Amino acid sequence: MKTKKFLALQVVATAVAAYEHNLKSIIRNPITLDGVDYVSNRQLITDYVEGRSGPFVVNDVHIKQAEGIIQYLEQTVIMQSLRNTPDRFLSQLSALLANKEVTNKDFGILAWAPHLVDQYQKKDHVRELSARYERSSQYTGRVGDKITFDFTLISKHYVKTLDCYAVYGITENDNLVFYWAKSLDKICEVGRIQGRIKAHNEDEYHSSAKVTTLNYVKVL
């Protein structure tokens, strides 16, 4: 029996609709949230593309988003290749989309396209935001000082090996600050925090910017 093929653009557009329906997340197995049943993104894509009923209708907006996703992934792979750091899964996904047509065996991978772009764009935004302050940032206070100031978050990410979150942001004077948080309630998005200055460092991961590291941080 000949394997049926589908337009990659249409499948990615359906993946976008499925991603939105599933609360902008990738669901692998059926779950119930707040009394609402959700099935996997892959199943939603399969049902819709193969002509069965679904909880959404793919429209021109989804098509436009899919075109942008495909273009963004292609450009990201090129940029990573120039830096000799191509992401394996990203390269696999981009190569699949380059074929223009895909089979239902590919739906599981393609379901990740909108989520992957979301993640990369968030990283791009963090890099752009951080770059605004890296050149002008100055150290805050003196090592050992206890300080209180207004804080705005730039990024946070969970470090599994340390079982805590790396928190990175700026003071009201646009100076870069870093601290570790053991739980989400210790992470300030925008507000006032208090802590003790642990160190002043030039951060090699942020263009050798001057960053003040805190400990014993409290969100006020």
Give the topology, please.
Layout: E1 5-7, H1 8-21, E2 31-33, E3 36-38, H2 41-49, H3 60-82, H4 88-97, E4 101-103, H5 107-110, H6 113-134, E5 146-159, E6 164-171, E7 176-181, E8 190-203, E9 209-219
Parallel strand pairs: 7-9
Antiparallel strand pairs: 1-4, 2-3, 5-6, 5-8, 6-7, 8-9
Helix pairs in contact: 1-2, 1-3, 3-4
Helix/strand-derived category reads alpha+beta
Q: Give the overall silhouette.
A: elongated
Helix segment count?
A: 6
> How do the helices and strands follow one another from N- to C-terminus?
EHEEHHHEHHEEEEE
Explained architecture:
This protein has a five-stranded mixed barrel. A two-stranded antiparallel sheet has the order 1-4. The chain has a two-stranded antiparallel sheet with strand order 2-3. A hairpin with a 5-residue loop joins strand 8 and strand 9 (209-219). By secondary structure, it is of the alpha+beta class. It has helices at 8-21, 41-49, 60-82, 88-97, 107-110, 113-134; strands at residues 5-7, 31-33, 36-38, 101-103, 146-159, 164-171, 176-181, 190-203, 209-219. It has two domains: 5-128, no CATH class; 146-219, OB fold (Dihydrolipoamide Acetyltransferase, E2P).
